[in-house]
Amino acid sequence: MTVTAPTTDSSINKYLQRRRRHYWLLVVTAVLTLCSLVIDVATGPGQYGLGDVLRAIVSPDDAPRAIAVIVWEIRLPVALMAITVGMSLASAGAEMQTILNNPLADPFTLGISAAASFGAALAIVLGVSLFPAASELLTTLNAFIMAMVASLLIWLVSRLRGVSVQTMVLMGIALMFFFNATLGILQYVASAESLQQLVFWSLGSLSRSSWSKIGIVTAALVITLPIFFFAGWRLTALRMGDLQARALGVNVGRLRLTVLLCSSLLAATAVAFVGIIGFIGLVGPHIARMLVGEDQRVFLPMSALTGALLMSLTSIVSKTLVPGVLLPVGIITALIGLPFFISLILKSRREVWG
Amino acid sequence: MSLAVESLSVRFGRTRILDNVSGLIASPGELTALIGPNGAGKSTLLKSIAGIEKSTGHISLDETALNTLDIAQRAGRIYYLPQDITSRAALSVFEAVLLARRTAHRSDRQQDLQRVQRTLQTLELDQYAERDLGQLSGGQRQRVAIAQAVVREPRVLMLDEPTSALDLHHQLQVLEWLVALAQEQQMIIVIAIHDLSLAARFSRHMWLMGAGGVVRATGAPEEVLTEERLREVYAIKAHVEWPEGEPPRVTPLAATRQLGTPTGQQDF
User: Fold this and answer.
1) Same domain, B202 and B172
2) For residues A7 and B4, what is the distance between their CA atoms, to the nearest angstrom?
3) Chain B residue closest to A248 (CA)?
4) Which of A123, A171, B24, B133 is close enough to B5 for a disulfide, judged by CB 3.0 to 4.6 Å?
């Protein structure tokens, strides 16, 4: 073997420098997210100083009671919900893009969100429970079950011989149209009250956040993120293409099912509590990819943090864009996400046909 | 101590891709060339040996039946390098090669990094180590794929047309290096290749497959590559020379009409 003498400015050093740069970007994004969280809590109809708000967060007993109640009962749940939901949607989007090898995959475009909406609408409009003996969490459970059904359908299609990941994505898009149609039927037959509730829900809103809901979304993150981390190398291998991933020893079918179900769990819990919030699952991972690449060891945490930061910023914007009016966050993410989505499509056309 | 294939068959639905392939042996320390016309089932054969394609039959490595191993164990011993390397993942060359290393071994981190660097240097890739896969040319990407294969230090390496996108310099360089690698590491290397002159020059053993997924000949290149057999299997008129002190030459002269394959199957 012809081995040239190793140089001092080795590719190892450059690689380690690159890793350090990625970790710094993670730290910076985390700090920005934390700042955004504090600003989010300090923003609202009641004008309190940043110092008062910070004091109320750190030691609620010493702060004026009104501020402490508003911060702890209203603002902090909303702000933390934004963070956890942003993390959930972006992590789900990141892994869906990874396992389906498609830059346009996310809970929204794959019909997982639409399925969850349909499940929720069943509860809101017809009071139909897909899971017996669950009244309190009816909407959430229905949304969750339908999201799981949709992801299983996508996965089942992938088991057919000769089905490419592109077909799976098309299947997801078909599901999105199907569930949107069934949702339309429910809206058509719905009473005025439940229709209003449904519309409000489908626009996406953080306003009904509570500590228990945050707990459930966090639980979903605590269950799924370690699974993603543990499968990190295998997920990165999947981006080399199915064939090479299998040559590298990855059980592609099993990994795809596991990760699809976990991503759906994340998406379903998020959608069930805050309604339809598009584009975070698409945009978050894309920003992360541009910043740190697709090595899962940094890509996944970066996606989660970017999603959290974007969602938190959206929450601030939703309160300040029209003073005194709380806009549904789903509208804002869609408005911000749309130009990005279009630029993404144009860019991928250049790559494919250029 | 070798790789042996007996009565291996692969079907896609009703189509028979490999038909009772038997008597294939590849030995450590030398290059085995897998040759044959398009659609003869070369890729399928390599994939079935690696366990990526479902097959019936018997494949053994060093007297161990390979179907007793799980996916990860098998991939640790046998690595299959696919023909089309199209990934545009946002990974640097270094990250991609490290990925291949880390999915095969769980050894010391520093050692893994060293191994990746040495492999990149040997394949003249170290100046691209920081570049993303999407920014590479076809030939560079193919060399990255070869680096990913050898960095795993498998017992058996199966390369599906690894030189198809390479320029002449890198074709010779990669093949010479593979011959040396097989000798030094006592590795079993099987390489599917279309260029018969290169195959004759660098391999010690050959598997010739014909249409219908059947083995038409095995043995030393001098025995396998006869003008008569090339006419039968490839439907070409060719001139085969083994000049003293020079590389062998297989010169295709003309395509002949294909007069039905011996098994009577339709060519596809």
Assistant:
1) yes
2) 42
3) B75
4) B24
